[in-house]
Amino acid sequence: MLLSIERIITPRLALTTAEFLAYQCEKHVLVILTDMSSYAEALREVSAAREEVPGRRGFPGYMYTDLATIYERAGRVEGRNGSITQIPILTMPNDDITHPIPDLTGYITEGQVYVDRQLHNRQVYPPINVLPSLSRLMKSAIGEGMTRKDHADVSNQLASVICTLTFPLCAFWFCVATGY
């Protein structure tokens, strides 16, 4: 149980320290949180010890809210010069993207970079799989005045080609969704 408590406290301690450095000392701070899967497992252990009613796959029902209180501590505060950038890293149990930990993290964060075990095993470095990776902020950061005018179109076409080569049925649905 003591190790579970340590795994729960560590990200909050790191972020409290980062907030001091960012907002009191006006620094730009990078916080790398590894492994958030271990954090969520610790939440499950403590929840079970407290005999709370379990949610999906035995994780506590409040896990979404709990993870959000951590992930949402990144950013800037108006009137302060510092900032906090967060890179939370998590593993997907059995490479299951629908597992509660990556699933909830995906809802909370603005983007995910998917590091693929199969690409790594084929010695592709960095083993980033662009299809399941995403950025919810991309549309507001591309286009005329920021990147090439046709950035969005080129990005969609590239995703379509990759999808076609990787998953032929996926290409059909991509074309239906985007009009390509």
TrEMBL record:
Keywords associated with the record: Hydrogen ion transport, Ion transport, Transport
Q: Domain (ATPase F1/V1/A1 complex alpha/beta subunit nucleotide-binding): give its ranges.
A: 5-135
Q: Sorted alphabetically, which SUPFAM superfamilies does this protein's record hold? A: P-loop containing nucleoside triphosphate hydrolases
GO biological process: any one?
Answer: vacuolar acidification
Domain of life of the native organism:
Eukaryota
Q: Which InterPro entries match?
A: ATPase_a/bsu_AS, ATPase_F1/V1/A1_a/bsu_nucl-bd, P-loop_NTPase, V-ATPase_su_B/beta
Instruction: Output the Gene Ontology terms for molecular function.
Output: ATP binding; proton-transporting ATPase activity, rotational mechanism
Spans through the membrane: none
A Pfam cross-reference name: ATP-synt_ab
Q: Which family does it belong to?
A: Belongs to the ATPase alpha/beta chains family.
The protein's name is: ATPase F1/V1/A1 complex alpha/beta subunit nucleotide-binding domain-containing protein
